[in-house]
Design brief:
By secondary structure, this protein is mainly beta. Helices cover about 10% and strands about 35% of the residues. The protein folds into 2 domains: about 200 residues, Jelly Rolls; about 110 residues, Jelly Rolls. Strand 7 and strand 8 form a beta hairpin. It is globular and about 55 Å long. It starts with 7 loop residues before the first strand and ends in a 12-residue tail after the last strand. Pfam families: Cupin_2.
Length: about 325
């Protein structure tokens, strides 16, 4: 029998990677910290630390950035969902990042449509953190960068190879023989990347924290899912649980699930089984807990005050395109 300690990642124990992506040396993006909490993530760097490698049907990650630091324009083949843990963030999209934008505050969530270029920037006054949920166990097999991002990176010494790996020419690294640099998308290929308006994205894919808290008055708010307030099937479902909608009743899932506190401290209790003895743990904002499949458990606020947490569970749906455009 094993304890669940190794399935809890504390905020203060997160191990960042500062060379995760091709824009790691580009001014304005060179202070990013990328975290892979659950799953393989989408990092292009072998330096990326994975905290929990157990397949969940989705990945959990995070991005930490100081003020005025941005993540460059890129696209994913599978779902990418963010909620703001701390700070104030601007999300923007389009070929040049000027098709639309939205500002998210703490607790707000965005389900960014796949198949379009997107980026984000910390516009707050202090270091900020956004938590990410990526569809699929392989997170879509990598990142597709806007052409100008690849070109800017090359000017600052970083080359992305056809093998999806980064090579830093400043330290003498270069792609192995037979591996060329990643080709930039042609103008014809770029036509396949949609540029929805701000109204389309904000109206369909963004939800505000306090609105979700109000909807979680008696039962958890189904944020993302086939019946969610963001109606989508990205391969997982996301609920927001608050003090009013938390329950002491034990429940379980036939797949691993994840608990991510947003506000307050949460006491998680679980019943014993053949693999894990009964126990409990207290989670704080920024902590992440992976709950094993078929393990009865509950989560309730551990003290007075505001309390909310995001709950994520795989649905087994293909983590396909979320942008419908119709």
């Amino acid at each position: 029998m094993t304890t669940l300690t190794d399935r809890i990642v504390r905020y203060g124990e997160l191990q960042p990677c500062k060379t995760a992506f091709i824009d790691a040396h580009t001014p304005g993006s060179d202070q990013k910290e990328n975290f892979t909490i659950i799953g393989g993530g989408v990092s292009e760097s072998p330096d990326q630390h994975v905290h929990i490698g157990i397949p969940h049907g989705f990945n959990i990650g995070a991005a930490g950035q100081p003020p005025k630091c941005r993540n460059s324009l890129h696209s994913h083949r599978t779902a990418e969902v963010f909620f703001v843990l701390s700070g104030r963030w601007r999300f923007f999209w389009g070929r040049w990042g000027d098709a639309g934008e939205v500002v998210l505050e703490e607790g707000d969530i965005i389900n960014i449509p796949t198949g379009m270029f997107r980026g984000f920037e910390n516009i707050g006054t202090d270091y900020g953190m956004i938590m990410a949920i990526l569809g699929g166990d392989d997170a879509g097999g990598g990142v597709i960068w806007a052409p100008q991002v690849i070109e800017d990176a090359q000017a600052h010494g970083l080359v992305l190879g056809e093998d999806g790996k980064l090579y830093d020419s400043k330290i003498g690294a270069r792609p192995p023989e037979g591996v060329g640099p990643m080709k930039v998308l042609s103008e014809e290929q770029l036509k396949d990347f949609p540029e929805p308006t701000a109204m389309e994205v904000v109206g369909g894919y963004v939800r505000r924290y306090w609105d979700m808290v109000a909807l979680a008055d008696k039962t958890p708010c189904k944020v993302i899912g086939q019946t969610g307030i963001i109606r989508d099937k990205p391969g997982f479902e996301v609920d927001l649980v608050t003090r009013k909608s938390a329950s002491t009743e034990m429940h379980s899932h036939d797949v691993p699930s994840v608990l991510m506190p947003m506000r307050g401290h949460w006491r998680v209790e679980w019943a014993g089984n053949d693999q894990h003895p009964a126990g409990h743990a207290v989670l704080a904002p920024g902590d992440t807990m992976s709950v094993p499949e078929n393990l009865p458990h509950n989560a309730t606020p551990a003290m007075t005050g505001e309390a909310s947490l995001y709950h994520v569970v795989s649905t087994g749906d293909p983590a396909g395109l979320t942008w419908r455009g119709d």
